[in-house]
């Protein structure tokens, strides 16, 4: 899969602006469906990337702890 | 007795010269002492001479006289200073004494108050050293702008010192304790006596060949001032200045700073101190790094959590404002419209129906069939079409007669048209 072009923060901001837009009762239904779909996609993307960042930090912390243990043992 | 005759004059014979002013001895010596003290002429002196009549008082003060062919000078070296001076004055020794002149009013004698003492031979060398120091300083060799920072985490450290002294052992001990991963490259050199400077320069040249050397320690254990002369050698100072890596000096001595110390990028008071300055404590470094990492990871998690909260909020809003709800509203409106339509239709059809019935009634009333009741018959062909005139009938044609209450089949016998 290609790397996402926009940053997580940008995607999150876009998602929030979509939520704001959907509040507008004058919004055309077709347009509402279109941006709603985009919003769901952005949500999934953001959630995935936040999970990945979280996991990465956990992995790094574990790697560091392991390294420290090995140094301590050696 | 002749007037003007030369001869010894007795005091009482002297012409009574007017005595302008009489001062007491105490005033003279006090004023003299103050005069000596107030100027710079008798301070910070290096006095060269031969020691005679040296003696040590029970309190540890050393009194002696410095003498040369022209005169002599009483000297006092107090116990507190004597402890710091490496040389003990002995009769017959040629020395260079440093101090200031003080006049004691009580005995009216001047004394040199000594605070440093060197062998007389050192006199010229000392002055030469001062001249050399000034010259090299003027060249900028000791400028702080020239000082290179020590590498924060050295891996290979060169050590120039004596193979026999304690310095090398001390450095090894300190480095092993602080960071066992640091590799020491030992370049042994002769650090005192004739040829010492050349030996140190050769060791430095050897280290300069190593590509991945991070820093060099130049060390020597404690020694008397005169034993440190190699570290004031001009060629050595220049070799240190052009050395490609930072140099830390650790020459063990208390009082004087050698030129090697001045030109070094960092000066440590002892070999051990040099090792401590050059090699950071790995344990402490690791601890700091871990603390920094924890802080960083914590902040990263905070950032992620903040975004996660925003994401959850956005998702909730998205769900609440989902088009499905709009869709339901639209559907409701559609249903509503449909019901309205149905209602309208429902009303429209019966109206039409009753109108249709009325029309049919009216039609029925006007129907020609109604005439049949009055005894008339309608002639139709077999094709079902009405034959409205005799002219359209043919003789022999079969026709049907429609009566009020039924039909009858007939045949045209003949056709006679009126007129």
Shape of chain A: rod-shaped
Order of helices and strands of chain B: HEEEHEEHEHEHEHEHEHHHHEEE
Low-confidence stretches of chain B: none
For the largest interface, the chains and their residue counts are: A-B, 28 and 21 residues
Q: Strand count, sense and closure of the main sheet of chain A?
A: none
In CATH, the homologous superfamily of the domain at 146-280 in chain B goes by the name Response regulator
CATH names the topology of the domain at 146-280 in chain B as Rossmann fold
Q: Rg of chain A, please?
A: 20 Å
Beta-strand residue fraction of chain B: 15-25%
Question: Your description of this structure?
Answer:
The complex is a heterodimer of chains A (74) and B (419). The mean pLDDT of chain A is 80. Chain A contains two helices and no strands. By secondary structure, chain A is mostly helical. In chain A, α1 (8-22) packs antiparallel against α2. Chain B is 41% helix and 21% strand. A five-stranded mixed barrel of chain B has the order 1-2-3-5-4. In chain B, strands 7-6-8-9-10 form a five-stranded parallel β-sheet. The radius of gyration of chain B is 67 Å and the shape is rod-shaped. In chain B, 20% of the residues are buried. The interface between A and B is medium-sized, with 28 and 21 residues.
């Amino acid at each position: 899969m290609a790397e996402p072009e926009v940053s997580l923060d940008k995607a999150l901001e876009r998602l929030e602006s979509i939520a704001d837009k959907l509040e507008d009762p004058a919004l055309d239904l077709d347009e509402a469906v279109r941006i709603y779909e985009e919003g769901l996609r952005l949500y999934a993307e953001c959630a995935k990337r936040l999970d990945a960042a979280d996991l990465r930090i956990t992995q790094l912390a574990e790697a560091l702890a392991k390294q420290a243990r090995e140094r301590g043992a050696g | 007795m002749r007037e003007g005759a030369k001869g010894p004059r007795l005091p009482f014979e002297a012409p009574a010269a007017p005595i302008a002013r009489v001062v007491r001895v105490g005033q003279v010596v006090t004023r003299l002492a103050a005069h000596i003290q107030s100027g710079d002429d008798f301070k910070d002196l290096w006095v060269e001479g031969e020691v005679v009549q040296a003696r040590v008082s029970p309190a540890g003060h050393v009194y002696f006289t410095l003498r040369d062919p022209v005169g002599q000078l009483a000297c006092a070296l107090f116990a507190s200073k004597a402890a710091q001076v490496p040389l003990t004055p002995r009769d017959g020794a040629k020395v260079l004494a440093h101090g200031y002149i003080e006049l004691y009013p009580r005995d009216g004698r001047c004394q040199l108050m000594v605070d440093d003492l060197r062998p007389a031979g050192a006199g010229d060398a000392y002055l030469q050293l001062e001249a050399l120091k000034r010259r090299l300083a003027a060249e900028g060799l000791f400028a702080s702008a020239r000082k290179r920072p020590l590498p924060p985490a050295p891996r290979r450290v060169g050590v120039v010192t004596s193979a026999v002294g304690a310095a090398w052992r001390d450095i090894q001990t300190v480095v092993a304790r602080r960071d066992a991963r640091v590799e020491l490259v030992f370049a042994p050199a002769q650090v005192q006596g004739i040829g010492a400077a050349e030996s140190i320069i050769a060791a430095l040249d050897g280290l300069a060949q190593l590509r991945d050397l991070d820093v060099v320690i130049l060390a020597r254990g404690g020694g008397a001032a005169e034993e440190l002369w190699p570290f004031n050698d001009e060629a050595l100072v220049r070799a240190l200045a052009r050395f490609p890596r930072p140099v830390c000096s650790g020459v063990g001595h208390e009082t004087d700073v050698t030129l090697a110390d001045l030109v070094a990028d960092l000066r440590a008071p002892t070999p051990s101190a040099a090792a401590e300055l050059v090699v950071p404590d790995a344990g402490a470094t690791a601890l700091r790094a871990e603390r920094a990492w924890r802080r960083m990871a914590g902040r990263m998690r905070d950032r992620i959590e903040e975004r996660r909260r925003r994401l959850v909020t956005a998702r909730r809003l998205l769900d609440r404002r989902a088009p499905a709800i709009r869709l339901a509203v639209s559907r409701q409106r559609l249903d509503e419209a449909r019901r309205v339509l149905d209602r309208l239709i429902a009303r429209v059809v019966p109206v039409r129906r009753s109108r249709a019935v009325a029309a049919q009634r009216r039609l029925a009333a006007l129907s020609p069939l109604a005439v049949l009741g009055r005894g008339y018959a309608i002639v139709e062909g077999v094709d079902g079409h009405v034959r409205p005139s005799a002219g359209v009938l043919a003789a022999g044609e079969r026709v049907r007669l429609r009566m009020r209450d039924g039909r009858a089949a007939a045949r045209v016998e003949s056709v006679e048209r009126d007129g």
